[in-house]
C-alpha cells in the first residue's frame, strides 16, 4: 500500500514516503495506491547500472592438451574425437571470455537493447563466431559421457534433451525453447551462468527428413524441429516461460542470450557411412579402388563426412551450417570395453569392489570374466552403456547374500558366471 500523509489523502511514494506535492513526478503502478517518485526511479537506475558494470565471471579454461588429459581420466579410447572436442571447446570458451571481457569494458552487460554480446562493439572490430559441435557414432560409444564430462571439467551448467521429444511450437510435445529452461534450472536459475553452459541434444538423427524431397505435409517432429532449433543454436535473446509449457499473453518470461551457449548435437546416424562411401566411390572395383572391408568400415569412412553428406542424410542446410565442427566416434572394441570396466575413476568394477569392501568382502574379476563381459556387450550391440546391466545381473545373487552372510571373505567372478550364470567362486572364513 502507498504511504499516506497524516491528516490527508495525498498520494505518496511507496519507497521514500514523499507526498506528490514534494516531488517532480509520481508514477502510479497497476494495483491499489502504489506509487514511485522520479527520485527513487533515478536511484534504482543507478543501482542497476552498477550491477551491470560488474565484470562477468570468466570460464576457467584449460589448454586443449590438459583438457584431453582430463577426459582421459573418465573416457577410454576415442582419442581422435577427444582431440577434436578439446580444441573446439577451448576455442569456444576462449571466445566466450573474450566477449565477456569486451562486454564489461563497454559496460553493456545489462539488457538495455536487443543486441547480443557478439553484436556489440568489441573495440578492435573483430567478431568471433560460435562453432557448435555435431557428434556421430554408434550407440554406447561415449557421446553423452563426453558432453557431460566436458561440462564437469569446465564447471559450467549442463542440460541434455532427447530430440525425439521435441515438436514445433503449437503442437503436442515439448517446445524447443524448453531446452533453455532445463539449462536455467540446472544452473539454479542463475541466467548469467546458464548463458555460458553446454546443451547436449541427443538423437538428432531421428529428426532428419525421411528423404531429400520436401514433403507436402507438415513434419512437426522432424524438419519442423530442425527449423525451430536454428534460432536458439545461433545467437538470440530467447523469452522462456519460467514454468515451461506454452507461451501466452500477459505471461512473465525469463530472457536468455544464447550467444555463448555451446550446443553439442549427437546421434548414431545409421546409414551415414554408406552415403559417404557412395560419394567417395569407395565401392568401385578395380585398380583405383580399395579393399571392400576398408570401404565398408565406418571407422574409416565417418571421419570423412562432409556437409553435403549430412544434408543428404536429412539435416537441413541451415542446421548443418550452424554445427561446423564434426566429430566421428568409433565403435568400441573388446579391449576398449575391458578398459572401460577397470580404468576410469568411476569404472564399474571399481564401484562394485568398493561396495563389497564396505561389507568386509573382497571382490575380484578374473581376466576371462572381464573379456566375457565385453564380448557380451558387443554381441548385444549396447556398447559401453550395457556393461553395467551385464555386471549387475551377474552380481545380483551375491549382492543379495553378502550382507547377511558374515562368513564370506572373498568372491571371484569367472567367465562362466558371465556367460552361463554359474555361481562365482566364494571363499569363506575357515572358522
Notable traits:
431 residues, alpha/beta, five-stranded parallel β-sheet, three-stranded mixed β-sheet, 17 helices, globular, disordered N terminus
- What is the β-strand count? 12
Q: How would you describe the shape? A: globular
Task: Please indicate the percent range of residues in DSSP E strands (runs of 2 or more).
Answer: 5-15%
Helix content: 25-40%
Number of helices: 17
SSE class? alpha/beta
| N-to-C SSE string, H for helix and E for strand | EEHHHEHEHHEHEEEHHHHHEHHEHHEHE
User: What is the makeup of the main sheet?
Assistant: 5 strands, parallel
Backbone CA Rg = 29 Å
For the termini, the CA-CA separation is 80 Å
Low-confidence stretches: 1-7, 109-122, 213-221
What is the residue-mean pLDDT, rounded to a whole number?
82
Q: What topology, given as strand order, has the largest sheet?
A: 4-5-8-3-9
In short:
The protein contains 17 helices and twelve strands.
Tell me what the structure shows.
A 5-stranded parallel β-sheet has the order 4-5-8-3-9, with helices on both faces. A 3-stranded mixed β-sheet has the order 10-11-12. The chain has 17 helices and 12 strands. The protein has helices at residues 38-52, 64-72, 79-105, 143-154, 178-186, 191-194, 223-233, 272-280, 292-295, 298-301, 307-313, 317-321, 334-342, 348-357, 367-379, 387-401, 415-420, and strands at residues 26-28, 35-37, 133-136, 158-162, 198-202, 237-240, 254-257, 262-267, 325-328, 362-365, 408-413, 425-428. With 431 residues, it is α/β, with parallel strands linked by helices.
